Each structure stands twice: as structure tokens, then as C-alpha cells.
Amino acid sequence: MGKIVLKSVHKSFGDVAVIPSIDLSIEDGEFVVFVGPSGCGKSTLLRLIAGLEDTTSGTIEIDGKDATDLPPAKRGLAMVFQSYALYPHMSVKKNILFPLKMAGMDPAEAEKRVAGAASVLNLTDYLDRKPGQLSGGQRQRVAIGRAIVREPSAFLFDEPLSNLDAALRVGMRQEISELHQSLKTTMIYVTHDQVEAMTMADKIVVLQAGRIEQVGSPMELYRNPANTFVAGFIGSPRMNLITGPEAQKQKAATIGIRPEHLVISEKGTWQGVVGLSEHLGSDTFLKVAVPGMEPITVRADGELTLRHGDPIGLSPMDGKLHRFGNDGKTLA
Ligand code: ADP
Ligand code: MG
Question: CA spacing 20 to 30 A to 195: which of 91, 97, 148, 158?
């Protein structure tokens, strides 16, 4: 079990309403990612669910029961902290065993759970080592192991990979996704990184200033962003957002087109000049200056030979143009 429902959840610190009011339903077994810029309230929301912060008003239900006033230990959830939260003087095994010992679990059962978690996380050969004798990724796995043995109804992760280098982050991202596939337990994962959100989530919750901007699957948000904020936040490089006369022609305050949805052609709708070009091998990204418009980013073939100063024509692909109104919301 691991269904979590937030109803009109509000959180203020003093006079500051960090979370004005949130309604959200997380289904049992879902992998949900809270994503948004730094300071938008992701950690606060996760801590409210964990019980590490009190709600100012509203209710939190876990598996159909009101958990709003339950202490963290009674909620059946496990928060995964970053690797530095391990006890340096204890072996991997003792680190993983620790929460079970504290809970007074039968030692035979506790040993069994540790062995199970170590096997899932490929830590079996490292159980006698100290955290200092492990790589960053292995330490992170120990921290996850400590959560797994408690058999929680949901795992809560707060930016668990932000201390790791880029290559390790990609590896751990895949490991956590695989872990979710094998455990099938609800996971709530907080990140400011939209790539992590896109690659890991069943459901993404995009937050800005304590408000939910949109909830949906990665591809729903990519294809049908509800507003300019989500349009600009999901997808890399970000969607081009164009205002002024070009938008007015489309009866919109803003139009949006993703870099991968532009076609280069001599007779293109927009005529400009190549500014910066970034050659990544697989792709080339061009910044194009079009008179009277914001600079446009275009994704092109990796072998493209256009250089700084070359003239270029661009056209949006059919059906790929997004239109937004004065309030920033997507127009029908
Ligand atoms: P995020 O995790 O998205 O970066 P946080 O949830 O940590 O954002 O913070 C959201 C806002 O709440 C920030 O403006 C932060 O300064 C404020 N905040 C967080 N915790 C406290 C606190 N204990 N007291 C006062 N303000 C806080
Ligand atoms: Mg945070």
C-alpha cells in the first residue's frame, strides 16, 4: 500500500505562505517526481508528507487514513537521505541494520531483510566495509538499503543524486528506476533537474512558487504543456518562446516552438543568421538571430556545416507550434 492524498495542504513559515494550497493524489506504486526551480517548495512539500514539518492547514491521507497529525515514525514512509548521513564507524551491514535494531525487530528477521536489500542493491560483497571504503554510488545505495529494510509503503527522495558527478548520476538514476520496477513501491522523488523528472517519472508534478503548474506523464507535459512556465521548463534545450508581431499573427500573446521542431530551409518562415553553433557530434544546436524576434535555438543534424554568420531560414513543423494567451496559459 502507498496511496497518498493531499487535500488543501497549506504551509506558512511565519507570514510567508510557502505552499498556498495543494491538492494532489499519488497512487499506490506510482513513481512521482516533484520538479521545479530552487526555492519553489519541493522539499517543504516532501517534508510535510514525511511529517518532518507540520501543515498549517489541510489534510494528508496515507492509505485512506488521516495522517496529518501522525509523527514521522508512524507514517510508514522512508525518507532517503544523501550518502553523508551514514555512520562512518559502522560497517555497511550495521548501517543498514540500524533502523531495524532501533525498532526492536527480531534479529533473525532483521538479518534476512538486510541480506535481501543487499542483494537487490548489489552490496552483498561490501557488507563488512566501512562507508569510507566505498564509492559515492555505493554509499548512496547503502542509504537506500537502510530505507528498503523498513519495507515502507512509500520512499521519499529529496535530490538524492545532486552530490554525485554527472556520470554517476546517470547510473544511479537508472538504478533507482530499476529498484522501483522490482519493488513496485510508491516513490516520491524531488529534483530541480527536468531530465531526471522526464527519465524517471510515471507522473511529474511541476511546481512554481508553491503552486502546482501541471501534473502529467512526461510525454503529456512535453506534448501539451499547460502554460509558458511548463513549456519552458520541460524539454532540453528549452522551447523557444516568441512574443510580438510573430505571435500576434497566430492570434496569441506568445508562441512556442521546440528546437527539435524547426526545419531548416532556404524559403523558411523566419529568415535569420547563425550566431553560436554547438557541435555535439550527434546533434548540432544553433542560436539563430532573426530580426525583430528573440534568438531562436534550433536542433539540427550532427554533421551540419553551417557556421557563425551564415544566413538560414527556419520553419516550424506542422502542428508543432504552441500558442499561449496573455495569462500564459495554452490556447485551445
Ligand atoms: P526547494 O526544495 O524547492 O528548493 P524549499 O521547500 O526548501 O524549496 O523552500 C521553499 C521556500 O520556503 C523557500 O523560500 C525557503 O526559503 C522557505 N523555507 C523553507 N524552510 C523554511 C523554514 N524552516 N523557515 C522559513 N522559511 C523556510
Ligand atoms: Mg529542496
Answer: 148
| Distance in Å, CA 101 to ligand 2 centroid | 30
Q: How far is the CA of 190 from the centre of ligand 1 (A)?
A: 14
Which residue's CA is the closest to the ligand 1 atom numbered 25? Answer: 13
Digit-coded pLDDT (tens) for 66-114: 999 999 989 999 998 766 689 999 999 999 999 899 989 999 999 999 9
| Assessment of whether the complete model's pTM goes beyond 0.90 | yes
Report whether residue 13 contacts ligand 1, using a CB cutoff of 6 Å.
Answer: yes
Say how far apart CA 304 and CA 280 lie, in whole Å. 11
For 250, the grid coordinates are: 497566430
Average pLDDT over residues 22-50: 97
From 11, 13, 33, 196, mutation site for ligand 1 pocket: most ligand atoms within 8 A of C-beta: 13
Question: Does residue 35's CB lie within 6 angstroms of at least one atom of ligand 1?
Answer: no
